[in-house]
Amino acid sequence: MNEAFTIYKLIILYTLNEIESPLTFGLISDYLTGHEYTNYFNVQNAFAELLDADLIRCSNTYNTAYYEITPAGRETLELFGNTLSREIRQEIDDYLQENNHEIVQRVTLISDYSKNINGEYTATCSLMEKNVPIFELKLSVPDEEDALRICNNWQASSDDLYAAAVKNLLRPTEETE
Fold first, then answer.
1. 105, β-bridge pairs
2. 2-98 CATH pick, 3.30.428.10, 3.30.2000.10, 1.10.10.10, 3.40.50.720
3. Of 69, 110, 111, 133, which has fewest CB within 10 angstroms of its CB?
4. Residue 54: per-residue pLDDT
5. 3-state class of 121 per DSSP?
6. Residues 6+ apart with CB under 8 A from 135
């Protein structure tokens, strides 16, 4: 069990290292359980141990936790990564490549909201590229329900909003006479 549990943790580290972007627990858990490496309970325990050892870190939005590998996690992977067989590494690489569009879509669109000091809510919606925001929209709304609606609709509306903003902001200005 101990050797297998170590493999689960190395798979998590390898996956986070290869994708170069924070991932959700669900994406990694789906991979591990879907490929029948282990069960959900073991994945949760592996994540907890990796967090406790500061090999991965977690950042939260209103409804999603994102995980990324830390420098100590990369160092650990360099030292013990060869414990993962070539077949496992290739399987992970294939999975990441085959599911790249879905993975990128889920990790590059981030939304969250918070309550302001004036009692209103600010919804923040970000389009990320390599963990750096390339487009960010902040809207102040009167209530939590509206903020939540904005965050929930961000996924479906982000492409259109980004394209419209770029088109309108990069259009040539009319010269005044």
1. none
2. 1.10.10.10
3. 133
4. 96
5. strand
6. 126, 127, 158, 161, 162, 165
pLDDT in tens, 111-151: 889 999 999 999 999 887 766 788 899 999 999 999 999 99
76: tokens are 């650990």
DSSP strands (E only) in 5-95? 23-24, 56-60, 65-69
Q: Is 11 exposed, middle or buried (0-12, 13-18, 19+ CB in 10 A)?
A: buried
Q: Where are the domains of the chain?
A: 2-98, 107-170
pTM for the whole structure: 0.68
- How do residues 36-93 score in pLDDT, each as one tens digit? 889 989 999 999 999 999 999 998 776 678 899 999 999 999 999 889 999 999 999 9
